[in-house]
Amino acid sequence: MDFDALRTAILGFVETHKAWAPLVVGVLAFCESLAFLSILVPATVLMLGIGAMIGASGIPFWPVVIGGGIGAALGDWVSYEIGRYFQHGAKTIWPMSRYPDMVAKGEDFCRRYGAWGIVIGRFIGPARAVVPLIAGIFEVPRVPFQLANWSSGFLWAFIWLAPTAGVLSFFKG
Questions:
Q1: What is the pTM of this model?
Q2: pLDDT tens across 131-173, in order?
Q3: Domain ranges of the chain
Q4: 41, 73 in Cβ contact below 8 A?
Q5: Cα–Cα distance measured from residue 131 to residue 47, given in angstroms and rounded to the nearest whole number
Q6: Measuring CA to CA, which residue among 15, 26, 9 is closest to residue 57?
Q7: For residues 133 and 80, is the Cβ–Cβ distance under 8 A?
Q8: Which tens digits make up the pLDDT trace of 21-67?
Q9: Contact at 8 Å (CB) between 33 and 72?
Q10: Handedness of CA 145, 150, 151, 155 (dihedral sign)
Q11: Alpha helix (H) ranges present in 58-89?
């Protein structure tokens, strides 16, 4: 299945089954935030499309943001735990093994910013799924990680959904 067919199928499903929008966005955000899987799932484009549907078709905004925030935070949490479990061995697993420069940049980023790096990294495309994994490898303490993770997850979902939802609502009303 190519990207256009996947995009059309997912957006068509959400348009037909509006009540499922929070769960769909949650799954997309999880995939976007999970190390390795984020490379394969074009969630950001789909979230923008669903954001546009929110503004155009009356899908409730806040449940979708909450679904996206939960999905994003869970994806980062799983990535973090993978890093803690495998430690430095995680760097030998694909795709980390193919991008040692990106891993080195992520390591420097985690050393420099600690848990704040999770908040910052959430908004930097390629770093989004790698920073939590590296935070786990370097054993960033769980409580600061989770505070940064959950707060930035909801902020990230809001920022990706609000512009298209709000703009279309403005023109609709």
A1: 0.87
A2: 898 889 888 899 999 999 999 999 999 998 888 776 555 445 4
A3: 3-172
A4: no
A5: 21
A6: 15
A7: yes
A8: 999 999 999 998 887 777 677 787 888 888 888 877 888 889 999 99
A9: yes
A10: positive
A11: 61-86
Instruction: Report which of 70, 43, 65 is spatially closest to residue 125, judged by C-alpha positions.
Output: 43
Distance, in Å, from the CA atom of 122 to the CA atom of 116, rounded to the nearest integer, reads 10
Mean pLDDT of 73-88: 92
Only one residue has tokens 């910052």, namely 120
Taking the CA of residue 111 as centre, how many other CA atoms within 13 Å lie in the half-sphere pointing to its CB? 6
Q: How far is CA 12 from the centre of its chain?
A: 21
- Tokens 């669903």 identify what position? 50
For residues 25 and 68, the answer to whether their CB atoms sit within 8 Å is: yes
**Which residue matches tokens 């959950």?**
150
Report the first-to-last Cα separation within the chain, whole angstroms: 37
| Residue 92: other Cβ atoms inside 10 A | 9
Three-state SS at 36? coil
Alpha-carbon distance values, 5 to 19, 36, 43, 61, 161 (Å): 22, 22, 14, 25, 22
89, two tokens: 């061995």
DSSP string of 20-31?
A: GHHHHHHHHHHH
Helix crossing, 100-113 with 127-137: angle to 10°? 70
Distance of CA 64 to the CA centre of its chain: 14
